[in-house]
Amino acid sequence: MKSLLINKKIVRVYDSIDEMPIVNFQKYNKYLLIDSGIGSDADDIDAHIVKIAKYIKSNNNRKALQELQNMRQNIYMVNSEISPKYLAFAALIHSVDGKEVNDLSDDGLKKLLQDLKEVKHSKVIDFLLWLKKKVTSELETYFPGDFVNPKEKEEVISRFYQLMQYVNVHYVEEQQKVKIYPLLVCLWGNLVIEGKDTEGSFEIFEKTLELLRKQKSLYCLLEIMRLHILVGLKEKRDMSKEQEDIKILQSFFEEFGYRAQSQIYVPQANEIMLEHVGQYLSTERKKVNFTQEKISDGICSVESYSRIENGRKPSWKNYKALAEKIGVENRYYVELLNTGKIEALLLRREISRILFSEKSMDKVRESLEKLMEILGEDECAQNKQYLKFIEICIEKEYSHMSEEICCEEYRKVLAYSMNENLIGEKKHIYTKVEINLINHISVCLAKSGKKEQAMRLIRAFLEDTDQMKEDKYHETKLAKLNYGRWLSDSGEYSKADSIFMDGAKQIMERDRAELLDQYIGEIAYNKYLMNGSEKNEQIKRYSLYALVLSKLFGTDRIYK
Domains in the chain and their CATH numbers? Predict the structure, then answer.
């Protein structure tokens, strides 16, 4: 580590990737990436303008629009006094005056910089340039293009393999493993493939592909497929089907603008926490007629609370206190259950897997009883809803309940937490359980011959999510898919096509694949209904895309 004297404080910073925790390294790389693509000062704005002019002159409207978006972000950062360069520097700080830095959130790093506000700009830039050169040199050891010394190469291969083994052993939860393991396999595989001895690597690539399939992830998919094919060909295996699949996928990704290159996975805040906490508090505050002054009194300043409603993430302590004050649940984590018990969350995911993949109701019932025991008295409205929802799914399978009765049962459960009449009023922030229930209610309505009613319900819900920006959830994607299908069945082909295309792109933006084959298949079918010919080249192309995606990821509905 390197010690710096900043604002009369001793600041210890990481100066080597050997000692740097992976979270710090990811944050450092993330901010440097943002800075290189978007920028953080007025000079960068000028650079964007030059590029925009260049792209307009060459009639490249797509790139010009992208640069315009980058410039918009650049201006926002300048106005908000957010500097990716400074945040990259903050991510490297180990301790200040002996006190270790543990909060690596965006807000935590900004606060850290506030405490060091007298640091000279030149000092930060010089340190970052020096570190970048040093890290680049170190990375050439860990991620070499060529090795003069074969022993060095073997050492690096061995290190990567050890990391892969570590992740395999310690990351039991596959949802977390899939965010790390594929990249390690890519880096390891690219070194192994250069040598003559590839024994065992084919099976590793196959298992990695299986992990991606199970978790419905596009992360590093093409690179893993490429390595899998190359090793297979080296070992004289027939890889003709795989070669055809990867060509189709490459074409698909290119057409939809999906970047398929392997890169360090950067977690998004909304993967673990409700993205619009402020919006949720604002909505619920207005329902009980609280002013900002009243809700913040005794918890935080009015100014701080106002910033929370405008997008700043509150501390857990303040958020809990604010939620309790207005009498709502502290929805912080994006989950179907509201609990801090890890075993309950893991069991919930197992129930979802069995319910929507194996479809074994006996196993579901057994797991549900265990889950109820674990939760015990932890029966908030969200948990009660989830448990009752699963009970209805089981009951429907066993007793063959009519769609009308099912619909009423789902409505009763939805009423645990919200009034159905609020749907479409833009006055409610939905949980994933509520979205599930609305989906099931609409499907029951459609199956019982009330398609218009079903469409009105889903349309109202989707209007809310557009307003509340909640379309990131898988459950919302399912609602959009159903709505698009009903539009297509009703002859509104253009509207349906727009929904299917937007939905597919949104799924891919998050490196996900759940429902992707169905979205693409619906695009093909919708175009067939519009054109009335199977020979249409677009229809053929999209049908091929859907076929390969279905082969890779299956069509079973899953819930995260």
Answer: 2-40+82-142 (no CATH), 167-255 (no CATH), 273-325 (1.10.260.40), 342-553 (1.25.40.10)
